[in-house]
């Protein structure tokens, strides 16, 4: 009985949404960074970090040198499809491996502790959402910050919700 209860309790955080899988807001709140300057406006730390990471991934994918068409075969149908190397799973995983070293976000007190905290949040984000990030960028060149951070992960308000609040 206890084992079943523990299994249910362990599963509960994953059942309540994406944010529970990756939420560094308590750590940033404790350090005095509940809100960060992101895209020229004050946003929650989780939202701003998500947007910065996704922006850097997108930038690196878009700046891929030697972009060329490559064949992709899907195991189920064995049909071939051509996609750009810059949006292939191999290239996406390559970018995910070192994206945290180049995230363009700086905290107000840009000291070593703040950098370590940001790097830890980024590493955890990439590790936790690797599959979602790969699906978001695979063979898709549309801007991803809104799709990933607001619609998929729900760590940012949707753009139309923000506009509604500004109208009030």
Helix content: 55-70%
Q: End-to-end distance, in Å?
A: 51 Å
Enumerate the spans where pLDDT stays under 50 for 5 or more consecutive residues.
1-18, 162-168
Proportion of residues in β-strands:
5-15%
User: What structural class do the secondary elements suggest?
Assistant: mainly alpha
Largest sheet: 2 strands, antiparallel
Mean of residue pLDDT?
Answer: 79
Strand arrangement within the widest β-sheet reads 1-2
DSSP strand count: 4
What does this structure look like?
Residues 43-160 form the Saposin B-type domain. It comes from Phytophthora infestans (Potato late blight agent). Residues 1-17 form the signal peptide. The protein has a domain at 41-62 and 93-167. The chain is built from 9 helices and 4 strands; from the N terminus they run H-H-H-E-E-H-E-E-H-H-H-H-H. It starts with a helix and ends with a helix. With 168 residues, it is mostly helical.
């Amino acid at each position: 009985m206890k084992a079943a209860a523990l299994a249910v309790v362990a599963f509960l955080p994953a059942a309540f949404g994406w944010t529970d899988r990756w939420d560094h807001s308590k750590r940033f709140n404790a350090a005095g960074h509940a809100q960060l300057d992101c895209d020229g406006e004050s946003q929650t730390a989780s939202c701003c970090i998500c947007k910065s990471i996704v922006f850097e991934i997108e930038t690196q994918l878009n700046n891929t040198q030697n972009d060329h068409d490559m064949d992709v075969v899907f195991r189920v149908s064995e049909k071939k499809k051509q996609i750009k190397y810059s949006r292939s799973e191999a290239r996406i995983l390559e970018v995910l491996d070192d994206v945290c070293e180049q995230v363009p976000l700086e905290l107000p007190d840009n000291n070593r502790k703040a950098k370590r905290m940001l790097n830890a949040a980024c590493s955890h984000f990439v590790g936790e959402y690797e599959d979602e990030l790969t699906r978001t960028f695979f063979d898709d060149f549309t801007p991803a910050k809104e799709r990933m951070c607001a619609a998929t992960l729900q760590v940012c308000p949707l753009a139309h919700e923000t506009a509604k609040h500004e109208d009030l």
